[in-house]
Amino acid sequence: MVEDVVLQVEDDEASYFVFRALFKETCPDIRLERAQDGEEALTMIRHLVADPAVRLALVLMDVFLPFLGGWEVLATLRADESLRQVPVVMFTGQILERDRLRCAALDVEYIEKPSDLQGLVSLVKEICARVEALPLS
Question: Into how many domains does the chain fold?
């Protein structure tokens, strides 16, 4: 059996812990992993993709990260044939117009971090439904 994994790339502790609590409650069958910066994200993504017991269902990528930003991580993924198909959604509290255009050009979705708890609950439910709807490989 293959385990679905969502990787949240988030450097803010408080944001991650709130998201994790809601995620575990809403999506108990999906494992949530965390990377705290872009370099750690690339290492974890390579490891998860190489594991035949895991399906990396989604990478929820913050834009502003230490060491290596979200855009740089995305560029690295898209340049690597073995990682090009990893599903990424940019996840940020501040999406600028140039970022919207960049997402469109890269055919990547973005989600603005909700500022309220109800918005976050809705977002977690949406992510879980998206993962559960993925076809089995």
Answer: 1
- pLDDT value at position 114? 67
Residue range of the domain that includes 61? 3-132
Structure tokens at 24: 């575990």
Residues 30, 131: contact at Cβ < 8 Å? yes
pTM attached to this predicted model? 0.88
The runs of H, that is alpha helices, within the chain are 13-26, 38-50, 70-79, 97-105, 117-132
pLDDT tens digits, one per residue of 49-74: 999 999 999 899 998 899 899 999 99
What is the amino acid identity at position 10? E
Is residue 103 within 8 Å of 89, Cβ to Cβ? no
Q: What is the CATH number of the domain that holds 83?
A: 3.40.50.2300
d(CA 110, CA 28): 24
